[in-house]
Write a structure and sequence with these properties.
Blueprint: H1 4-12, H2 15-28, H3 38-48, H4 54-64, H5 74-81, H6 93-101, E1 108-109, H7 110-119, H8 129-139, E2 146-147, H9 149-162, H10 167-175, H11 184-194
Antiparallel strand pairs: 1-2
Helix pairs in contact: 1-5, 3-4, 6-10, 7-8, 8-9, 9-10
């Protein structure tokens, strides 16, 4: 079954992601008929959650099989794997200003990206600098050392996904932060300069 909403997901995948998913789909499709039946889908679902009961699997299979054909086609499989989370994105302009505060106008390297994430409070709890390094290496163009605004936006979406937050939450975190944390005297001078109420 293909509805407009389902097609939209396949469009947002990169060719590489589509290829990987197609490979995975073909491996699961034991009888090669281009769809996954309950048996084939059970193997896939049990890999993720070995303790799922047959009843749970049947119920979930019914949800994945959007057109109730009794089989899961590639579109339905993609929709299940990439179940669209509500994409809540706010205004990027405040984020862009902060990105530029951290030197974004001429691109930021991994170290600067890490500093930005630390200073705005993105790194905490289970989310560490290793996660940031991984995300950076995912979005940085091949052979380049810096990311620019477009890649930075992709990185922020990945951060949100990894932290199980909406993109808007991460945007707010960045926008509401004080910006780059400088050493004492410099920061005070900047604050004095920015805050007209102080003079």
């Amino acid at each position: 079954g293909q509805t407009f909403g389902q097609q939209a997901i396949t469009c947002t995948l990169t060719p590489e992601e589509q290829r990987k998913l197609r490979n995975q789909f073909n491996k699961l499709d034991l009888n090669g008929d281009g769809t996954l039946n309950l048996n084939e889908m059970t193997r896939f679902l049990k890999r993720g959650k070995p303790d799922m009961s047959a009843a749970d699997i049947e119920r979930l299979f019914g949800e994945i099989d959007a057109d109730s054909s009794g089989k899961v086609d590639f579109e339905e499989f993609v929709n299940y794997v990439f179940k669209p989370k509500p994409v809540v994105e706010g205004d990027w302009s405040g984020v862009k200003a902060k990105f530029n505060d951290f030197g974004g106008a001429d691109g930021i390297d991994g170290r600067e990206f890490l500093k930005l994430c630390k200073d705005v409070g993105i790194i905490k709890g289970k989310f560490t600098s290793t996660d940031i390094d991984l995300i950076f290496s995912n979005v940085v163009p091949r052979g380049k050392k810096k990311i620019y605004w477009e890649e930075f936006q992709r990185a922020i979406r990945m951060v949100a996904d990894k932290k199980k937050m909406t993109v808007q939450d991460v945007q707010n975190l960045i926008t509401s932060s004080a910006g780059p944390i400088l050493s004492g005297t410099q920061a005070d001078a900047v604050r004095f300069h920015d805050d007209k109420s102080l003079y």
